[in-house]
Write a structure and sequence with these properties.
The complex is a heterodimer.
Chain A: H1 2-9, H2 13-29, H3 36-61, H4 69-85, H5 91-114, H6 120-139, E1 144-145, H7 149-152, H8 164-182, H9 184-194, H10 196-201, H11 206-232, E2 234-235, H12 243-253, H13 265-284, H14 289-314
Antiparallel strand pairs in A: 1-2
Helix pairs in contact in A: 2-13, 3-8, 3-11, 3-12, 3-13, 4-5, 4-6, 4-11, 5-6, 5-11, 8-9, 9-11, 12-13, 12-14
Chain B: E1 6-17, E2 20-31, E3 35-39, H1 46-53, E4 63-68, E5 71-73, H2 78-83, E6 86-89, H3 101-105, H4 120-133, H5 149-161, E7 167-171, H6 179-194, E8 198-202, H7 206-212, E9 215-220, E10 223-229, H8 235-243, E11 261-271, E12 279-289, E13 293-298, H9 304-311, E14 319-324, E15 327-329, H10 334-339, E16 342-345, H11 349-352, H12 360-364, E17 373-374, E18 377-378, H13 380-393, H14 410-422, E19 428-432, H15 440-455, E20 459-463, H16 467-473, E21 476-481, E22 484-490, H17 496-503
Parallel strand pairs in B: 3-8, 3-9, 6-7, 7-8, 13-20, 13-21, 16-19, 19-20
Antiparallel strand pairs in B: 1-2, 1-4, 4-5, 9-10, 11-12, 11-14, 14-15, 17-18, 21-22
Classes of the chains: A mainly alpha, B alpha/beta.
Amino acid sequence: MKIIKKILRRSEIGVLIPLLILWVITYMANKAFFSSTNMISLFRTVSISLLGAIGATFIFACGMMDLSAGSVYALSGMVAAISMKDLGLSVGVAVLLSLLVGVVIGLINALIVNKFEIPAFIATLGTQYIARGIVNVISEGKTYTGFSESFNAIGGIGFLGIPWSVYIAIIISIIAGFILKNTVYGRSLLAVGGNAETARVCGINIKRVRNIAFLISGILCAMAGLLSTARLSTAQVSAGTGWEMSIIAATIIGGVSMYGGYVTLIGAIIGVTLMETLTISMTMLKVNPYWQKIVIGIIILVAVGIDTYRRKKMSGGN
Amino acid sequence: MANNEIILEMKNITKRFPGVLALDNVSLKAYKGEIHALCGENGAGKSTLMKILSGSYPASSYEGEIYVENQLQHFQTPKDSEEAGIEMIYQEISMHLDLTVAENIFIGNWPKKKNGIIAWDIMREEAKKYLNTLGVDIDPDSILRRLSASQQQLVAIARALSKKPKILVLDEPTSPLTNKESEKLFDVLKVLKESGIACILITHKMEEIFQNADRVTVLRDGKSVSSYLLSETNEKQIISDMVGREFDNFYPKEKVKIDEVIMEVKNLSVPHPSVPNRKIIDNISISLRKGEILGIAGLVGSGRSEMVNAIYGKQPKSSGDIFINGKKVIIKNPKDAIKNGMALITEDRKKDGIISDMSILENITLPSLKEVSKFGFIKKKKEKEISNFHFEKLKIKAPSINKMVGQLSGGNQQKVILARWMERKPKIFIMDEPTRGIDVGAKYEIYKIMMNLVKEGSSIIMISSELPELMSIADRIAVIADQQIKGILNADEFSQEKIMELASL
């Protein structure tokens, strides 16, 4: 009983219940929903978006914002494609270069925000355009396909018939959860998001903490872009357009505070799953595709509205 | 106080929150044309009582009756309370900083022309009229942000007056003000009182009560304990009513051996934080001895906080050297200061003292994360032990160390901050207004903690606006005014007159 009560009191329950309801409704309308093909496809998408959402969680934790996620996603995939197809580099080198994209853009974001003191929203909006522009320039607008089998395998099915990306997402989630809860860095990150000036008075190097968050976000977005490119066996200039917004929405729906200082990784996972389920469910429920975006927009507003209301009530209702 | 006409009576008010009896049969009587002080420790029920009066809690949510001019009232919303002639001025000024003075005064209540367009000229004139009533010279067209805190407050009062109140409630109005500004505020309140308005003043400051109020009501633990005419009571009586016990010696000063110089600051200059090419501290030198409590006095805005913040590396200095134990140290940021054995309790707990969404435990270990971890991993058990140790030692009032700090009272938040630094056993403890906004009982405990710290060999630099406190606790007092130290007084030279004289040089 006690455990059930404890679970019910967790903030994540507010997103878990709608998710379960959505699953049941979709299943009742279309029995194919829980088929293994469909589930694999759902969780492959979830796992890729989750990487971005974990990055967003770190960014939000310290009160920052990263709008460059979708462009990093595209650029990392494109760099991998060009390395292999045009430059003839090996798969291993291509993967490393593609992850390096995340490192570099993460560091540039950090530099602009912390050195030149440009607000994160503007700084990463700038790098979003720049990175997207670089994708166009280096690909000359071309779509790349036909990669080697060993590269495509990264996005394919792995052990026990589950996609590799799911394993990767699980491992990264566990590491991220551990960092947030049990390390000096995680604590410092939340302290900076909770009250940056207090953190500084207590001797925390707030710029370094934020730099690392941007770096983590960059790498995770690059990883997501890479996995998606391998899975689709395609790199195209429009990849990941608007992706940053959907991972931000998923993270916030999950209960992560945009204002810093409060995160829930489990919430972020459920949030991403909810967002991705929605897309699949609406298709299965034959909702007019034109209406899908409207529905998603309403759900974002309702989820955040409920969460704000609940948190207000919890803090004594002032 | 010739008036014996009761204007407000709150009768047997009882308010329950889930699990808590916030107000237990509280009564309050305010008379026409008086300044009525309402005091009590934090959590005594002052704010709850005022929220009931303002209509923030609807009439159905509590028991008891409210009469305004003998008329029974049922406030459902703040609007109802306003219509009955009650105006509130809250601690944190709820004003629109980027609007003009006139716009602020008439916000939501704009004078309009027949066609519904705002009558700007009437608004300006009317604003001027209310400001004149207060005897202040503020341009109705100036943007509020450009005014000082005290001017902003006067605008808030003008706004309240524009609604022609019978009862004006002021929640700790002087906390952002300097002494001079406070005096001016009370001059204004006295004018209002002459016109028949009852001013209810919520305050912690005894001095204010005795200089300005006509009557005082004391709340304790949700009950009304006593109500006196000021002429019939004294400070000791009120304090003991507030805390429920007698204080023989409110300032627990003890003699501590004062040793060699531990820190020397030479030729410190600090740039003005908001005015370019100006200094807020100019070429100050000062020393601190082991076991000493060095008091810093000065008006708000004299640069006293900026001076200690610059020593601690919290804000940049333009020049100056710091020597600790005779050795020159480089302090560029708070991290360097901590390494050199310093600790800082900042002036504004909410702004840069606590992290309100973190637990007591997380707040306590914040500067000691390195010490409670190995290879970057936090040792949770050790962290818990340390926090529990201080939690119990400082008697922090909370259900457990997992409670969010934002939900504690001011005094307990301050204890959490003290605990945070005591864990590091700092040699030099800088405390900027350590007892501001804290109730009397907790103040006493904080003085005790300070005495223990110096007994154990720490040294303290203490800034305070409350001179009685400063004179009772400090061993020496440096007075800062006009960017410089105007004088350093030894204990035998302490007097309020002397300090104020130096501070206003």
